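A common beginner's mistake is to predict each chain separately and then try to dock the pieces by hand. The better habit, illustrated here, is to supply every component at once so that their relative placement is modeled jointly.
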Amino acid sequence: MARTLEEVARLAGVSRSTVSRVINDHPNVRAETRELVWEAIRGSGYRPHAVARSLVTKRTQIVGMVIPEVVTNLFTDPFFPILLRGATEACNEHGYQLMLSLFSSSADRQEIYQGLVRNAYLDGVIVASAAVEDPLISDLLRDGVPFVSVGRSPIERVHSVDVDSVGGTQMAMGHLIRLGHRRIGTIAGRPDMTAGQDRLEGYRRALGSHGIAVDEDLIVEGDFTESSGMAGMQRLLRAEPSAVFVASDMMAVGALRALRQAGLRVPEDISLTSFDDIPMASATEPPLTTVRQPIGRMAALAVETLLDLIEAPGSGPRRIVLPTELVIRESCSKKEVVNP
Amino acid sequence: MARTLEEVARLAGVSRSTVSRVINDHPNVRAETRELVWEAIRGSGYRPHAVARSLVTKRTQIVGMVIPEVVTNLFTDPFFPILLRGATEACNEHGYQLMLSLFSSSADRQEIYQGLVRNAYLDGVIVASAAVEDPLISDLLRDGVPFVSVGRSPIERVHSVDVDSVGGTQMAMGHLIRLGHRRIGTIAGRPDMTAGQDRLEGYRRALGSHGIAVDEDLIVEGDFTESSGMAGMQRLLRAEPSAVFVASDMMAVGALRALRQAGLRVPEDISLTSFDDIPMASATEPPLTTVRQPIGRMAALAVETLLDLIEAPGSGPRRIVLPTELVIRESCSKKEVVNP
DNA sequence: TTGTAAGCGTTATCAT
DNA sequence: ATGATAACGCTTACAA
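With all components supplied together, the output reads:
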């Protein structure tokens, strides 16, 4: 079992360089020689040594997926598993591998960052769900590491893939408004993440464009977790909305729980719509009307953009925005007109 | 900004090897020299080049987490995110990195395997939830790659970390039996995974040890997904059990849905107990009485066992079995005695 | 205690 | 079209 180029070369009766050329599909090799070498390779079960190759090419074919652990709901929210899956598949398709980094504490953030990026083990990085001011972003920028953010960054030159949160939210809100609702509340997402900001912005704009005044009592803040959705709904009930836009499905699950405990029926007593369309959204009672977000596609696009960046650096900032889709299920109903 | 040992060496006025010794904490370096070198390192912002180092040490400090994609419920079941998180944290704690591999199709299985393990980019591998006959296991065994399986393997010499599924199930069943239930059904897990097998075995043993005959009509097969739990419960209802042991929380969520649709109340009409204690188990209606499985600890132990194996190979097979714990919530109640 | 020098397994440059 | 040979940046005998 040949372990090195040299051995394969001896087997094929050629030089090490020729074998290297064959493996890397270089044009200048005679067809016969090429076949000869391939035979030796197959016969000996030889595999090139990726590390040695990386040392000279300066490429590892590994990209990192970094998830800042600000994200406490990592375990319950299927957003991340789906993202991970999409990214892994896209990587494999292009011959890359995915390295996973979760920054547990901000203490080891620095350390992991150093050990990973600056040690040159990564060709590039995908950053998922970073808070707006995450220092990771500036580190990457400073060090010139190719990276793509999933979710837009306020920093202009950061490459990103995102969904149209503002537009998606407006669709959901439009739906509620068309159903006759006027007193619409919202359980917003984290204000330090663009996803949270944009969905709240969409909420405000939808009201504005329909001439409905914004009532700050109808806005409560969550953090995308189920429990924050439950607490949020409990607070929101005091303002007596007839419908609520919840900024994520997980929070909607919590909201649903709060409503059940309060003895309110959905959608008879109150309408609910949310954002994400995770698998669970169709399994709740009632199934959720929600804005579908193509998480897997986002991940794949992020990877592809990153590989582009790695292979052809230096073009302008890429800021991809994917469209969303309103999935109508059973959590919304017409507002019965009290004063006709 | 020094990029190589050589440059740091020049800066500190010593040789390259001395710098290397300092970085690697070798004893034979004079304290002054050591300090001198550290200063040069800090001053120059030097970071060792991991790839170059790996080429000579034959270690990458990277371990792989391989999840055979037989696992269709990867996205919905929080088992995997929790496992991933546990593994990542343990890795970071020991200065390792985690590379993620999901085998989408069995087609690329081979390819990814080659490109990963045989290319020597991984020091070892953690295999999660492999089916009993997964060819991955035999490949790893054949190639002598250090690896640990999460979940026991039927192959004796495979190192593994698992929970006591049989014992845990017996606890859950004992609880139901103590509550007076005799006609207890089960929605079993995948028969091709040891977790499924063991939980079914626990079910049978519990009945046996209490002198209750096994009624095959009370056993239906699921695959750990929510939808299979729902379908399973629908089938099971025909056999009219007064209680059911469901082999996973996700399936129990499905079962709960089936019961709600059938107009049955839990626990008044039928008692339910399951396995895993994922976060969702406490959020269902009613909250689930379930067997807690320390997923994060399992992952951490798997990593630690693997690192052991990598650093000190050749000891006997390690087969760790962690205890479980019965978490009593509100999904079980006394069987009211119909014929006293 | 420190320095010199020989690899590690590739790719890439330059002759031939 | 092919073969020497010099990197790549590090660790590690072996010498001094």
